[in-house]
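Chapter review: from sequence to fold.
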Amino acid sequence: MYFTIFATDRADHVALRLETRETHRAYLRDRAAHPQVTVMHGGPTLAADGDTMNGTLLIVEAPSLAAAEAFAADDPYRQADLFSDVQIRPWAWTLGRPEAED
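The C-alpha cell string follows.
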C-alpha cells in the first residue's frame, strides 16, 4: 500500500528544520531504520516565496497504516517537535507510477 505523509512546520521554526535536516534525510535513506517502509518520493513544501521550507511531503510504501504511522513518528523532524500537524492517508498511486501504465 502507498501512503502520503503531509506535515506542516510550526510557525517560526525554520532554524529547527535546518538543524535537524541532515538527520531527517539520513533517516529517510536508512532502510535498516525502517525495514517495512520504503520512501518513494519526498521533499519539503515551500512558502509562497518559493524558497522558504515550511513542511514535508512524503510518499511511502508500507504494509499498513500503522507501519506508516510508526515510520512518521520516528522521523527526526517529528522527534524534534518541528510539526504543528501531520496527516497520513492511504493513497492510490495511478498517474506516473513507474510500473503502471498511465
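Two observations follow directly from the output. The chain has one domain: 2-91. The longest helix spans residues 14-29.
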